[in-house]
Amino acid sequence: MTLTLPSRPSLARLRAQARALQRGCRACEPDALARLAAVFPEQAAASPALSKAQTVVAREYGFASWPKLKAHVEAAVAQATVPAVSDAEALADRWFSLAEAGDPAALARAFAIGKTRTHAAREVMRRDPARYWAFVQFLLDGLASRRAPVRFSMAHALDTFGDDRCRPHLIALMEDPVPRVRWIAMHALSCHGCGEKPAALEPEVGARIGQAAIGDPSIKVRRQAVISLGLAGARADLLRELAASDPDARLRRNAEWALTQMRKVV
User: Fold this and answer.
1) For residue 228, which of 258, 198, 194 has the smallest C-alpha distance?
2) H-only helix segments in 61-166
3) How is the chain split into domains, by residue range?
4) What is the 3-state secondary structure (H, E, C) of the chain?
5) Which residue among 56, 59, 149, 193 has the highest number of C-beta atoms inside a 10 angstrom radius?
6) CA dihedral sign of residues 112, 152, 253, 201
7) Listed residue (112, 123, 138) closest to 86, CA to CA
8) Of 59, 40, 69, nearest to 1 (Cα)?
9) Structure confidence by residue, pLDDT tens digits, 215-255
10) What is the DSSP letter of 102?
11) 164-169 own/partner pairs: CB under 8 Å, 24+ apart
């Protein structure tokens, strides 16, 4: 017969099974004797050595010998006692590896997780400052890509992983020809909920986002610029004006929301 080891095998239980087989043979139990004869047909005595009973048990579990079964079980037990790699550590290693492999598209896909997991992985990554900065530099390099989706994805990532050294690059990106790249750059510069940002938005950045809120050619950029001002707690005067009189209803709602956010901070 062929048996299957449990997911958590126990060497002590297997030894107990071998002893039980040995006792059954001594008691001339037909089932025990049949099991012994299936492996040792030449065995005449009804009192086998424990080593032979162990061999029978090993063969029943699909192993050639007791030492091979013992080694398999010991390895399985050792593996089970190794601390599992945490989710944050696994994410950090994956993101590092994708950046080091120069694969921005795969990295962007790998970022599609929740904020809590992202922040936990970021803290793991920061334990290795040199490798972390190389990772951030890869994101910065992506801002110069000829492909707009790459520029968008890397700016989006810098919202969480960037620091003061990244801000000049994101400020320049507010002039990108692609609307969605412009607004994600504004968001990355202003959203305190995603990553480290200055306590107050730089005046020139606030002015540029304010200009976008008033007159960017893309209504989507204008709407997002209003949200960015609210997230940064900047230009309340402009937000009140837009909330009261802008012809776009959704932008007015965004401005009202932004003002609400600012009052929460105060």
Assistant:
1) 258
2) 66-81, 87-100, 104-110, 115-125, 129-142, 148-161
3) 11-81, 87-265
4) CCCCCCCCCCHHHHHHHHHHHHHHHHCCCHHHHHHHHHHCCCCCCCCCCHHHHHHHHHHHCCCCCHHHHHHHHHHHHHHHHCCCCCHHHHHHHHHHHHHHCCCHHHHHHHCCCCHHHHHHHHHHHCCCHHHHHHHHHHHHHHCCCCCHHHHHHHHHHHHHHCCHHHHHHHHHHCCCCCHHHHHHHHHHHHCCCCCCCCCCCCHHHHHHHHHHHHHCCCHHHHHHHHHHHHHHCCCHHHHHHHHHHCCCHHHHHHHHHHHHHHHHHC
5) 56
6) positive
7) 123
8) 59
9) 999 999 999 999 999 999 899 999 999 999 999 999 999 99
10) T
11) 164/196, 164/198, 165/136, 166/136, 166/139, 166/140, 167/198, 167/202, 167/205, 169/140, 169/143
Q: pTM for the full model?
A: 0.66
72 burial class (0-12, 13-18, 19+ CB within 10 angstroms)? Answer: middle
Per-residue confidence (pLDDT) for residue 214, from 0 to 100: 97
Q: How far apart are CA 82 and CA 21, in angstroms?
A: 33
| In the block, residue with structure tokens 């305190």 | 192
Q: How far apart are CA 216 and CA 177, in angstroms?
A: 11
Tokens of 209: 């986002």
Say if CB 35 and CB 56 are below 8 A apart.
yes
3-class state of residue 14 by DSSP: helix
State the burial class of residue 19 (Cβ atoms within 10 Å of its Cβ: 0-12, 13-18, 19+). Answer: middle
Q: What is the pLDDT of residues 54-84, one digit of tens each?
A: 999 999 998 999 999 999 988 887 766 544 5
